[in-house]
Queue: 4 jobs
Job 1
Amino acid sequence: MARWRDTKQNKSNPKEDTSIKEKNIQIESSPLSTRLRAFLTDTFLITTPILYIVIYLIMGSGEAFSEDKIKGWSIILIVHLLLIIFFWFVKSQTPGLKAYQLKIVDTLSKGRISFIQSLIRYVATLFAVVSFFLIFLPFIRKDKKTFQDLISNTIIVPE
């Protein structure tokens, strides 16, 4: 009887309202300052050790590295690519993202990103770091998405 009365008086079930609202929620990306700190943390935790290992253990010395920079940087980028893609694809977060309680998710499904998305995001990140204009893209966008977020259809959100 109560159901009929609620329907007649245009009252709806609160459980139904929350499920409808949850489906339409837009996930906002984490603040730019937190994402930058996570990126810098990853640079020091992942990239710097790779750099030193390649220069001093694989190439032998700084002079050998400077003589064959293409080989050295190729090794660095390949190892870095494998590590970062592993962290993004398997764990949904790098050590820097984990330190700041962030994770990377698919924009549409809000779930784990695919291998292709992580590869596209990595290449887009390299391109954005090298490009001068693309670094400032999140500052002029209202949703604060970076170039790599737009290209790979991913977003970094709080955990």
Job 2
Amino acid sequence: MNKIVFLLAIVITFSCKDKVEQKLSVQEIVDKSIEVSGGVALYEKSTITFNFRDRKYISEMKGKRKTLKRILKNDTINFLDVLSPDGFERFDNDSLVSLHDSLATKYGNSVNSVHYFSKLPYGLNDPAVQKELLGETEVKGKQYYKVKVTFNQAGGGDDFDDTYVYFFNKSTFKPDYLAYDFHVNGGGMRFREAYNERYVNGIRFVDYNNMKPIDEGVSVLQVDSLFNNDGLKLLSKIELKDVTVSQDSYN
């Protein structure tokens, strides 16, 4: 009898040890999420195009050089916006448009924001990103890792003081939900629920239900509780259309 008890104690001890060893760090969670969404190598050799709200977006990777583009074209305008390591430029047909620095920054941030959200979770390992595992939470009956993301002022852009919260599914490691607060234009908070998941040439894309709190004054860190208790309302749909992905041989 004592031998059986002893063996059970050993099994329980090693079982508990395995659970401790299997606890993932925030970096491991993000790395796994990027991998199941396409993987760094694939993101960094792909040219991605899509349409969003009557504009065409193009993301080009040439080696480690990233160039983000936006094309605005209708009966009255024909602009090409280009954001690269050299800065932001706007072209009217082939002519460079002279812009005030504040306007160039505004347009550049707008281009970067759309491309950033389109390729999540890629980008969460950028040098300016600071990640913190807040713990685990349940959202609509499923278990999630809850990760807080902030940005260093150096390299974090004009919105470096915004706070993001990502919810990584514990089974799939995919970011099914995200939330963020912002401080421009009076400030506020948004919560995005991913849907319409599809893989295009190996890279994951989703659309979002874009929501806001019914009652203001709630911390972005509590947004999962609001969502679980119907405390959010739908503002808009974030839909990427006509997505294409091509891999270039020179990368």
Job 3
Amino acid sequence: MKKQIYDVIVIGGGAAGLLASALAAEQGFSTLLIERNEKTGRKLRITGKGRCNVTNNCRPREVIDNIPTGGRFLCSAMNAFSPEKVMAMFEAMGVPLKTERGSRVFPVSDHAGDIVGALNKRVRKAGVELLQAKAEEIETEEGRVSGVRTDKGHYLGRRVLLCTGGMSYPLTGSDGSGYSMAQKLGHSLIEPKASLVPLEIAGNDCPDMQGLSLKNVAITITDGGKKPVYQDFGELLFTHFGVSGPLILSASAHLKDYEHKHYRLSIDLKPALDEKTLDARLLRDFSQQANRDYSNCLGGLVNKLMIPVIVRRSEIPPATKVNSITKQQRRRLLELLKGFTLDIEGPRPVAEAIITSGGVDCGEINPKTMESKLVPGLYFAGEVINCDGYTGGFNLQIAWATAYAAASHFE
């Protein structure tokens, strides 16, 4: 009996793989989806804290502006499958969507499982054949893709779409195996690094405030130059190793050169108050607590977990009576509240990152079709490509757009 030759073999059942395999099968291509996990979409299920930030409700140009690595490469794909089209697609698939702050798009239900469920339903309806196996090598014959070798045998295919993700959250299947498969076929790899990742901070201040979440604070990150590297407003979290939270994850995407630059984080704890107004506030608070110890009068200004650190940093003896605090000491406290600085040592390991920066070199991929320029019949989609964006749904938009580009150009 002659062994079946699939028109399309998709490696990786994440966001890009699920969409691309469904689109391929709907066009009449016999399609095999290889996924190593028992269930597809494992990483997709935990994105956006389990809510799934599907895309960003903005124009393609704005998406490109929020993709610092590979943005230009993605222009064609983003215009062909814009956020507007992505949203319309999921609505048509029975998943109502809503737009929140920062134009972030989520399912109305706030359940990532609804997105995964809709994609799985579409995959089944399209007739995609699903194989639970680990892809080990993409095979070629006379320089062209011929199939995939897995831990469960060889599967012949005229086209192979590689969308195995990066190296973040390896327990979901993103273990970097796609990189090695691409390299074996001659593709260049931009070194994978963590992006959208918590940051490690020098010293004991963060461990002393572990678990403290600060809302409505402003941050500025500098690298010793004249201009800030990053500025934003929002929420952050102190941890045993440093800092995390939405502000920090967004900031990390802008910090690329830890080896040669010294990054410093400055937190404005009172961004709504200018220095004059804050100083008046300090004078008022101090006058109302004139006979109390300094360490006992900061409860109205900062969280109790932060008080010992503020006292230590201000270098005002904790037992100092408030009515004896000098103008110079008050100034030191004010500067600390407006600029609580922390020295960044580097990012947490890539396994803790939301996404991976780096991957298969964009210069070796056709930006319109996502087909390899080196190996006919080999295509790429999603995080395995050297493209990554900021937080806000941009990385999933990359997955949808590249999957659509590839599946739309199978011939």
Job 4
Amino acid sequence: MMETIARDTYLNKLISKKHNGLIKVVTGIRRCGKSYLLSNLFRNHLLDDGVPPDHIIEISFDAFENRRYRDPEVLYPYVKGLVSDSDIYYILLDEVQMLDDFESVLNGLARMPNVDLYVTGSNAKFLSKDIITEFRGRGDEVPMFPLTFSEFMSVYPGDRQDGWRDYVLYGGLPLVLNFQTPDQKASFLKSLFDETYLSDIIGRNHIRNRAELEELLNILSSSIGSLTNPNKLSATFKSVKKKILSAPTIKRYIDCLSDAFLIDSAMRYDIKGKKYIDTPSKYYFTDLGLRNVRLNFRQVEETHAMENIIFNELKVRGYNVDVGIVVSNERNKDGQNIRKQLEIDFVCNKGSKRIYIQSALSMPDGQKTAQEQRPLMMTGDGFKKIIITKDALAPLYNDDGVMVMGLYDFLLDQHSLDF
């Protein structure tokens, strides 16, 4: 089924970056579709655009027949020999981390005047977020994510309610769609997590205590969308797990998980003070199926799942996403002045554009609506304010100028925020 998914968001990004003189580097969590994007979708675009097949040089380094090209002394002269005229050649290198000294090889190929270079990689080293620095300013990153709900539904055989239930449980890794039964999907995700993601992270970062890392993953899985920090997590280890795990070690583990694109974080931002608050932060999983399999599909609360999915959707759409904080001065029941921090789920920035978003599974009455809306009304600015809820009938502005938008309207229309 995977071959029927268009992935136009990423294809269009690659097309827009053609001939920019940089190495296009497709990064993202393993099995999210990077190889298919490059070797099928983008290659077909080049052919449809009139590029002669002999001007597309494609090598998949994980293929048995290409194993000799993993030696840079073999690959470099081979590719140079194929570039036989002054027309543009498109070089597509898949699983490039299997090429020895790939950074130097790519830098060398990028210096050729009529070469346009595109690469993907899937091991822990290549998935490191700092890989672009290896190319000394020559890299142009294209972050790729698992399937959005819209992409998922483009091939899902049922209605959107059934699709939502499956998406919340099993996530958006394209290969999950190849399995029919819940047991097959769960088994695939468990095997992938244990044998691919964890093995990569442990091997790359020389982690000696796998059990500690797995315990941390379980705690993070249980607390998606909750404010936390290494000190609080260390206290949880001590009180709940009866184990000592220092805050610096936890921070290192979190950095490893983040570098492998397994989790992402949202920092707190003081809206009126216009400054970041270092800790605590919120952590979200790049794929909910991987999060759920960590907990054997227990604790699948729709409220938290919806918040995680909205966060991922915003990242796919290119927003920088923070947690908003506004301070309210109030009087308690004794008449004393107190300062209370109110939270806005997502402060979304893209260039000069900003949108405030609250995630609310349902708003059954005016009291709940007022509760969700209150922080939005305290920002003191005129940026767009949206509440996304599953039970909204249609997008509409209320009397306070806040847009109330249905979850499906938001997820299924990539331009839903451009009103």
